Amino acid sequence: GAVVSQHPSRVICKSGTSVKIECRSLDFQATTMFWYRQFPKKSLMLMATSNEGSKATYEQGVEKDKFLINHASLTLSTLTVTSAHPEDSSFYICSAGEGPLAKNIQYFGAGTRLSVL
Amino acid sequence: GEDVEQSLFLSVREGDSSVINCTYTDSSSTYLYWYKQEPGAGLQLLTYIFSNMDMKQDQRLTVLLNKKDKHLSLRIADTQTGDSAIYFCAELNTGNQFYFGTGTSLTVIP
After folding, report:
1. Which of B26, B43, B89 to mutate to test the interface with A (most CBs of A within 10 A)?
2. B41-94: pLDDT as tens digits
3. Confidence grade of residue B39 (pLDDT, cut at 50, 70, 90)
4. Which residues of chain A have pLDDT under 50?
5. Cβ within 8 Å, pair B31-A104
6. Rounded Cα distance, A106 and A2, in Å
């Protein structure tokens, strides 16, 4: 299947700093990528839909200025958690779709564990 | 948003069959999925089924869909210790919205 690489896999940062997470589709072009947040013992929550060359579409309740998403190319989307605080600590996962069913069949990155001290 | 529910835990003995169940509320689902998450790893797509299908089989995996009852199940035949993981069901609706279940933690007892 298609490969989606997410980096870093784990990051620990101080409160108030910003953290950037990268999501790359290694062997296919992804016009749309998705960013999710996973809460302990809870399901994945879609944060935003990232479209190449345009602004991301955020889900209700997700702060746009807090979670900056950039999708500069067909193979790379980035999520920047700005001025991170302990409540932002979570597991963040990206996904990308391939081909004509791009929005239907999603391949996930390995996730990034963010710990804010 | 829509609700997708799963039992949190399931334990089976090695060699037995596992059945993981999922219920959802969305009437406009188009695709339904099963993902596997191993410890510390991301989600791996196991299989998916179109909403107009009743059953899909893929090697040891059998997906059953009862659209009337909005019930989806994943059967793993001859369960192995390597199958121990968290299994998420998810549905995609006509609005291209993904909704995930809470995940079922499967423990395979040797």
Report:
1. B43
2. 667 889 989 888 899 999 999 999 999 999 999 999 999 999 999 999 998 877
3. confident
4. none
5. yes
6. 9
Helix, strand, coil share (%) of chain A residues, nearest 5: 5, 50, 45
What is residue A109's predicted lDDT score, i.e. its pLDDT?
Answer: 87
Q: Could A108 and B35 be called an inter-chain contact, meaning their C-beta atoms sit closer than 8 Å?
A: yes
**Distance between CA atoms of residues B21 and B17, nearest Å:** 13
Unique residue bearing structure tokens 């989806």: B72
Can you tell me which residue has the tokens 């990155």? Answer: A109
Query: Which residues from A are below 8 Å from B88, CB to CB?
Result: 43-44
Is residue A24 within 8 A of residue A76, CB to CB? The reply is yes
Cis amide prior to A86 (ω within 30 degrees): no
Query: What are the Cα distances from residue A7, in Å, to A79, A93, A112, B97?
Result: 11, 10, 7, 25
d(CA A30, CA A77) in angstroms, rounded, equals: 9
Share of chain B above pLDDT 70, in %: 93
Residues of chain B contacting A8 with CB distance shorter than 8 Å = none
Q: Edge-to-edge strands of the sheet including A76-81?
A: A4-7, A19-25, A76-81, A67-73
